[in-house]
Design brief:
This protein is of the alpha/beta class and 294 residues long. It has 10 helices and 10 strands. The chain is globular and about 50 Å long. The structure holds flavin mononucleotide (FMN) and iron/sulfur cluster (SF4) (2 copies).
Length: 294
Amino acid sequence: MKKVIYCFSGTGNSLRTAKIIAKQIGETTIVSVREGATSDLAADADVIGFVCPVYEWDMPEPMKRFVERLSIHADAYVFMVATYVLIHGRCFESMDSILKKKGTRLHYGKPLRCVGSQCVAYEPFPTPRLMVERSDREAKKIGKEIASKKHRSYPRMAFLTRRLYNRMMMPFKQVQYDYDQGFYVSDRCKGCGLCQRLCPCKDITLSDGHPVWNHNCIGCNACVVYCPSKAIMFKTPEAYRILGETGNLTTRAVIRRLGLPENRTRYHNPYISDKDLCVPNETQKDSKAGFDAV
Ligand SMILES: Cc1cc2nc3c(=O)[nH]c(=O)nc-3n(C[C@H](O)[C@H](O)[C@H](O)COP(=O)(O)O)c2cc1C
Ligand code: SF4
Ligand code: SF4
């Protein structure tokens, strides 16, 4: 039986989850969804999974674009696990509507609470010391359900979130591609190029050995949290600053929080290294590595 999991992950929670599920369901190929990732496996796979974070109450755009291009075996069992911290929003509905156009549906959908990792806006929470192991245990349970091909209807966007979506999320979506203009490097940057290799959106180029951001950032934070020198800094970009002056109350409140103080914890999942994440355009086979705590 052929099984494939497509995983998008910035700070490792979703990749960790995908690996735990892969271990439960047996020999599975995990494909990292990044620019140029291979997409042919789903055409004849019997089990197809999608694991990704929730971004702005929805699926990350690169995951959406990737699934839209995918050919999916009509009889496959299809599941989705979305890692998130507080509000999963409409991510399952978005996925299901893409699948519906391809003649299939989501057979199993479950949100998995993990450490919130948007370090340019807040300290990671709930505390990783407790949350990481809790998420792992929950992922293992999810993996067992998926292994038995359980059907589970996914949670829909809550009434209040649906009402607030346009007011709270759309202003940010409009300036999304200006976000990376807030990044700059301190003199700690050693020019190692890891940030460029890690970026799933190929947003980073190097100039004189230092990163330059090119307006294709989805805000996954991989470059920020895996930089070995903690050299990547962030200041509110101009487009956001203007939005902060002209936007509604909630937009202004969020923008006021943006920033990356020196003492901010740059959380990434402790079981996922930059090498795990940084697999360009190829597949990873499930391995026993990193499962000690599961
Ligand atoms: C750009 C961005 C947007 C996010 N938006 C949401 C959100 O709308 N709701 C939520 O509950 N968590 C949100 N989070 C938290 C992530 O969904 C959560 O930390 C996730 O586990 C990260 O997965 P990863 O480690 O695989 O990248 C967001 C994080 C980032 C970086
Ligand atoms: S990963 Fe960090 S040290 Fe390496 S090039 Fe990027 S910013 Fe510089
Ligand atoms: S530039 Fe950094 S934060 Fe933006 S998508 Fe690339 S790795 Fe993620």
